[in-house]
């Protein structure tokens, strides 16, 4: 991928995840290329990569759109996370190094509450925390799988946040995060997996699935 296409990939991806390119909307490639200061050739290259990530749909005429949010995809994401996230947390507790634990603790201290309209910094803080946990599993296939799911799941988190969050929601999430750090620090894989499963079941992804009618 060319440098311009790589830059376009990052910028368009950020627009999709931030909701600036709304779910179901057509991507006006000419105007978007002008906005980014590039030609349509590197933009199309970036869009093809985003299609492989599941963040863009391209038809036979090379028209592009942002995929709509669906109950089916929300369900699929939740089902996969119910299996993979607890597995990663349990393995992290068993395999983490001192450096892994230091990073998990640091990212936990950097967490910022996700309220109705979070910015990139707030969303990134949660991604960094969860990434620190699943990276500590030292299972490369598991790490790649969870990393690939995160962008898709972020779009559903935004949907769930539109209905707001109570202080009770925020306190429960914070308690889950603390419990995960404690279990991983204690090398208690069973507890880490159980806490993570409960965390996923009460997650924004689960709320998004409910709001989509399933």
UniProtKB/TrEMBL annotation:
UniProt cross-references to InterPro entries, sorted A to Z: GntR_C, TF_FadR/GntR_C, Tscrpt_reg_HTH_GntR, WH-like_DNA-bd_sf, WH_DNA-bd_sf
Pfam families: FCD, GntR
Residue ranges occupied by any HTH gntR-type domain in the UniProt entry: 2-69
Coiled coil regions, renumbered to chain: none
Keywords of the record: DNA-binding, Transcription, Transcription regulation
Domain of life: Bacteria
MF-aspect GO terms: DNA binding; DNA-binding transcription factor activity
PANTHER family: TRANSCRIPTIONAL REGULATOR, GNTR FAMILY, TRANSCRIPTIONAL REGULATORY PROTEIN
UniProt name for this protein: DNA-binding GntR family transcriptional regulator
